[in-house]
Amino acid sequence: MTKPPAMQKEAKERADEVSVAFLILLERLPPEARAAFLLHELFGADYREVAAAIGKPATVCRQLVIQAKAQLRDEGPRYTVSREVHLNLLREFARSIEHGDADAMSTLIDDNAILTADGGGKQSPVCAPMIGGQRIARLYLAVSRRYAGKLDVKIAMLNGHWVALRYTSGTLESVQSIETDGTRIVRILVQRNPDTLSRIAALLART
């Protein structure tokens, strides 16, 4: 059996191989549930190995994985659209962010859209999910004004999924992953955790 620290390290590396949107959802799980899920689902460890790695009984680890799956399922995508439609909407969204285009944002973001941000406790993310297209648009417009002339938004494919990378003064500041109903954006997941951004930047450098 691989030593628990090594197992945890490899499981964390496996997390970089899943979609950014899924990674953001993973980071919203409680630490023990996230560790148990990664070890069992991504690394293939059985519950006895998971128990040894995180210091919890195997029965508890099993419940942690079940709970993690339920939370990920509840927070997962609700719509199925073509990659082309998704990419086109993401491109329009990226342009509206970079140029601070209020009209475009109002058209693109659904009135009942939800924005969820993760700063890992090291940045100043939205404390709770932000609901409402106008509120979300105002947040992005405020950032566009604050970093006028220093903002650059690029589209990139990470692990098979298209995302918008927002750079300020050349530094990766956040990753935006969207969910769309095929017409408008209904959900935005924003990653601002510096540790996660460092892993994403390293992943980009290898591609």
From TrEMBL:
Highest taxon above the source species: Bacteria
Start and end residues of each RNA polymerase sigma factor 70 region 4 type domain: 25-72
Recorded GO MF terms: DNA binding; sigma factor activity
Pfam families reported in the protein's UniProt record: Sigma70_r4_2
Signal peptide: none
One GO biological process term: DNA-templated transcription initiation
Classification via PANTHER family: ECF RNA POLYMERASE SIGMA FACTOR SIGJ, SIGMA 19 FACTOR
Full protein name: RNA polymerase sigma factor 70 region 4 type 2 domain-containing protein
Source organism per UniProt: Paraburkholderia azotifigens
